[in-house]
Amino acid sequence: MKKIQLIAGRSHPELAEEISKLLKVPLTPVDCKCFADGEMYVRIKDKVRGNDVYVIQSMCAPANDRLMETLIMIDALRRASAGRINLICPYLCYSRQDRKAASREAITAKLVANLITKAGADRLVTVDLHADQIQGFYDIPVDHFVGYPLFAKYLKAKKMLGNTVIVSPDIGGVKKADKMADMLGLKLAIIDKVRKAHDTAEVTHVVGDVEGKRAIIVDDVISTGGSVCVASEILKKMGAKEVIVCATHGVLSGNPKELFDNSSIDQILLTNSIPIPEEKISKKMKIVSLGPLLAKIIKRVSKERSLGELFTWEDKKQSL
Fold it and tell me: Which residues are part of the catalytic machinery?
């Protein structure tokens, strides 16, 4: 087995440190800074020649800076003769721009795929792309994991599955919600909503029985938080006794803390794919860490072992 090296970008040092401790592999020091004119500088401070290198970087806000930093880091590793460059990217920017919805629009998710591949990455590991087909934009192996098995495991451990229904926040999320419902042996409800503009949606009605039940909304991302708050109000009006929101990525644009604190949502489950500033953390939030999963992925990739069983939540027999 080649030597494993972990390199952390500047977006999420806490997650990188967690993975480092779990794997008992120290983070390779990196000199990363910005010049006065905004240009970035990256230098890997240890030798990487022939090694299996894992770059840990979530491309969250400021997305353009994080993307450029990642590309420069990958290029530096390639020019330093790293044996294999693996990008561990829990949150991949521009994933919601995966198709042309209007004339003269760019397909930016494809552009990002071209940039990452051309820079020299050999593999991409990511979590909950907005659209599964983005994997096909890449000419390198892509391991696409999802967040709902972690939420399923958490909810079962907390014994929160009695008299419960899984709710898809829109038609596009039915497949994901249905898989989680099937995983837990629960029924499915669907919220029908119309998107009026970017980051703006209007709930029209709910398909399915939620009266007297705990309703668990499953989504890939919370952006402004407005849609899930409106969805929660609709579910409560239709008789749901409790509403729990599960979302892999907490983008949390603006300042949704007050919005969540005053909403009818009872609990919000997020992963730490994106670092959440203290001022944006609501009293209703619970963070489920991706660290153990990502550490297992890195260990298995390094040993050329199958990742198949990591796609489910039954991991009692799994080990690093």
Answer: 193
